[in-house]
Every structure is written in structure tokens, then in C-alpha cells.
Design goal:
Blueprint (H helix, E strand, L loop, with lengths): L3 E6 L3 H11 L5 E7 L2 H11 L3 E5 L7 H7 L7 E6 L5 H6 L4 E4 L4 H37 L6 E6 L2 E6 L5 E5 L2 E5 L4 E4 L3 H7 L5 E5 L2 E4 L3 E8 L2 E6 L4 E3 L5 H17 L1
Parallel strand pairs: 1-2, 1-3, 3-4, 4-5
Antiparallel strand pairs: 6-7, 8-9, 8-12, 9-10, 11-12, 13-14, 14-15
Length: 263
């Protein structure tokens, strides 16, 4: 089991010693060092990149909140604030502290905070590993010319899997794509060019700079003149093509007519 790399920040030597003593009873913790003030904390957090920091709030030079907000640190560890002043509790959770220990605290309360932090760290690592695997699979598909079948999205704190084959159409919206199913829509941070390169060209047709339609859900196509076509989908949604995609559309229509003749 990987140990949780931990740093202790407190201007009182006895307070640091007590935390170290309590942590010594936990085999899953590795104490990286001690800091007696905020300036040392900034340096050691940047150097060691700990998983967890026990942070006193009131310190003579830089207080605990200033360490987190003023340091502009690239690595942000999980924080357990340790203080004798309860008025800081709400602010501690505003900066997403994982726990808040009021001095004097007993051993049970201390170990509860440690266990809470451990669960948060494991959850974060699991999520990062999952995302890394997704990225590797996407890279593999891209390098091998494979089409993606599913996109994974985060919506309101939960994971949503959207099947590409269920999409009626896709619209570009700034730096995002809006993915439309029959009665549902989703927002994906992706460019139209990258998305188009990963989907099955035999199933999807780009008809506009900002629109891709699923050919399986096309109800009818009518010519509007001036090299433009109107696509009506099976959910009654209508799209007008742009002239720049005339050749691709004509090729698609010719292939569909040929299929009908051979059927």
C-alpha cells in the first residue's frame, strides 16, 4: 500500500510533536517534514509535493489561509487545519479543507480526520487513473484509425456515457460541441475537427461548418437552391447545409440512390 506523504505546519514545537506521535501509530503515513512557519510551508510543499498537510492557521509570518491563497502553488495537497480558534471553521471549508481539528483534540478525532483524508486521496487517485486510462484508449484509437463508440462526460457531478451511434446531430458551440440525442442534449469540450476525425464517416455527414448529422436519422433531404440542402431528421429537427459542403452532400445522396436501386 502506498503511504500518504504528509507535511506538518505549526509554529508550536509541542503541537508538531503531538501530530508526529499520533501519525507514528498509522503505518499508512509517511511524514516528510515539519515547518514552523508559513514561509517554510510554501517552500516544502513546492519541493516535496505532499499528499496531505496538517496546517496551523494562526502563525506569526504567514497564516495558513495565506499559505494556500498567496503561494500560487502548482501542487495543491489535501489540508487538515489544526487550530484553537473555531471562528475559522467556515473559511477552512471555503478553501476546501478536508477536515478541521480543534485544539485540544483527542486521538479518536485525530484518526478520524486522517481516515477521512485517506479516502479523499484514494478517490482522487482512482479518478485520475480512470481518466488516464480513457486518454490512453482514445490515443490508441486515434493512432490506429479506430472510431470512438462512446464519449464520457461529467454532468452535475456524475459520469454520463453517451453512445455515438445514438446521436442525431452535433453542433459546434464556441469551444464546445453540443451533442443531441432524440430528446436529450449534452455538452462536450472538443473541437468539431477532432470529433469528426474520430467518428464513423459512413454514419455521419458534415453538412455545415458547425453541424454534423447522423445519416441513420435523416428522414428526407430537399434541395433549397444555391447549392444548399435542407436536412429533416426523424425527430423533425431541420438543418440547412452550407454551400461549402455541396460535394460531400451530393456524393452521399448519389450513394443513397444507388443503394435503393440495388436493394
Amino acid at each position: 500500500m502506498r503511504k500518504i506523504r504528509t507535511l506538518i505546519v505549526d509554529d508550536e514545537p509541542l503541537a508538531r510533536a503531538r501530530i508526529i506521535n499520533l501519525l507514528s501509530k498509522n503505518e499508512g503515513i509517511q511524514v516528510l517534514g515539519e515547518c514552523k512557519n508559513g514561509r517554510e510551508a510554501l517552500k516544502q510543499i513546492a519541493s516535496y509535493k505532499p499528499d496531505l498537510v496538517f496546517m496551523d492557521i494562526q502563525m506569526p509570518d504567514i497564516n495558513g489561509f495565506e499559505v494556500l491563497s498567496g503561494g500560487k502553488m502548482e501542487h495543491m495537497p489535501f489540508i487538515i487545519f489544526v487550530t484553537a480558534y473555531d471562528q475559522y471553521a467556515l473559511k477552512a471549508f471555503d478553501v476546501k479543507a478536508v477536515d478541521y481539528l480543534m485544539k485540544p483534540y483527542d486521538e479518536d478525532r485525530f484518526q478520524q480526520a486522517v481516515e477521512h483524508a485517506r479516502q479523499q486521496i484514494l478517490y482522487k487517485e482512482s479518478a485520475l487513473l480512470h481518466q488516464k486510462m480513457i486518454n490512453l484508449l482514445d490515443e490508441h484509437r486515434h493512432n490506429n484509425g479506430e472510431n470512438i463508440g462512446v464519449v464520457e462526460l461529467k454532468e452535475k457531478g456524475r459520469t454520463v456515457l453517451v453512445k455515438i451511434e445514438d446521436l442525431y446531430y452535433v453542433e459546434a458551440e464556441g469551444n464546445y460541441l453540443r451533442l443531441f440525442e432524440s430528446n436529450t442534449q449534452h455538452l462536450l469540450r472538443e473541437t468539431m475537427v477532432n470529433f469528426e476525425a474520430q467518428i464513423d464517416k459512413s454514419q455521419f455527414l458534415r453538412i455545415h461548418r458547425s453541424v454534423i448529422v447522423n445519416t441513420n436519422f435523416i428522414e428526407r433531404v430537399s434541395y433549397r437552391g444555391n447549392n444548399q440542402f435542407q436536412f429533416t431528421l426523424k425527430n423533425d429537427k431541420k438543418h440547412i447545409s452550407s454551400r461549402g459542403y455541396r460535394d460531400e452532400i451530393v456524393k452521399y445522396l448519389d450513394e443513397e440512390e444507388l443503394k435503393k436501386k440495388l436493394a
